[in-house]
Write a structure and sequence with these properties.
The chain is an alpha+beta fold. The chain has six helices and six strands, in the order βαααββααβββα. The protein has one domain. The protein has a six-stranded antiparallel β-sheet. It is globular. The termini are far apart.
Length: 167
Amino acid sequence: MADIWIQGSFAFRCTAAECALIEEVANAGYALANDDAPDPPSAALLAAFPPDDANARWSGFREAFNDPEFPTIGADFIAETCPDDPSARIVCFASMDDFDAAAIAVVIQRCCPETLAKGPIGFEWAMTCSKPRIGEFGGGWCAIFADRIEIDATNEALSRALAGDGN
């Protein structure tokens, strides 16, 4: 048996309102995953994650994640006021064992439209293993744009390169 860890850590600058929405998403996701009743969703959260079912306010939120029963951001979330601009926040996502790049990308894209209108946000992650198992080491990258998310793993890029596909 071997342990596999997906690790990542990155920070970016966003507005205070976007940061507050990310915090609401993080808190709601963990409450829903633990079968606790989250605070009622704000208008901003409902706009970012419109319900699929009018009778289920959290339906659009849950469906945005790979596992609707576990709608968490897949990392620790930390935010601080930006030292050179009190109206901005520095947001950090980090995890040493269960970094969920896809969930983080969806949250950023849905919660940070003003920031993404100024330019994309990107990050990388690493996958490590407690034993020297073939195929269990790697990583990937993600670029988040206002209109799309591009995400790729190193093993996929390596396979393409070995096949002679220059992309």
